[in-house]
Amino acid sequence: MSTPSSRPPSGIPESGGNAKYAIAAVVLLLGAGGIFAWRSLTNRNEQPAPPIVPTASVAQSAAPTADPKLDDIPPPPPAEPEAGPPKVKYVYVNGGGCEGTCSDRHATPELSQALQVRAMQARRCYNQALATDSSLRGHVTVAVRIGSSGNVCSATVTSNDMGTPSVANCAANMFRNGGGYPAPRGGCVDAKVPLSFVPQGQ
């Protein structure tokens, strides 16, 4: 009597060459997926970090800001030359009544006295120069223009026979930088102030 052939339950492949091929295909697919995942992670880790770009607020704060107080300061005046004939130049300060024809008839006694005081102060320029050159002597004339409000329009050297411009320029600066004067009467004043520089007692 023949026995019936036993078949494996459904879902289990029959013994033979097909089962091992299926298992090998699954292992290969899992291996390929693992390699792909591993390469993706390593490539992502090797990418350089994006550069840091400062925001607008950081860029603006880094920029230097100009000091408005420093921008309003005018540059210093150029130094006066030490040699050559003096040039007559009138410097008008915001108008100040310096324009037009000025006359010495507008001078008041107070203004004349203030000019004499400046002439005595200019003696200091000569005394300082005399300490280095005892033979220094001569005469200087300074033309001073006073505006109608008492401001100094200009002070320039018109004559100098001392042989050096340093004392004459210093004397003109005494008239120019000493501040305001008593206001003249009726307009601006042109005054010529003669200065005699000789050692005291001579």
Write a short abstract of this structure.
With 202 residues, the protein is α+β, with helices and mostly antiparallel strands.
SS content category: alpha+beta
Structural Rg: 50 Å
Largest sheet report = 3 strands, antiparallel
What strand line-up does the widest sheet have?
2-1-3
Low-confidence stretches: 56-63, 81-94
Textual characterization of the structure:
By secondary structure, the chain is of the alpha+beta class. It has a domain of 102 residues: TolA/TonB C-terminal domain (2-Layer Sandwich), CATH 3.30.2420. 37% of the residues lie in helices and 13% in strands. It has six helices and three strands; from the N terminus they run αααααββαβ. The protein has a three-stranded antiparallel β-sheet with strand order 2-1-3, with helices on one face. Strand 1 and strand 2 form a beta hairpin. The chain is rod-shaped, with a radius of gyration of 50 Å. The chain starts with 16 loop residues before the first helix and ends in a 5-residue tail after the last strand. About 11% of the residues have low confidence.
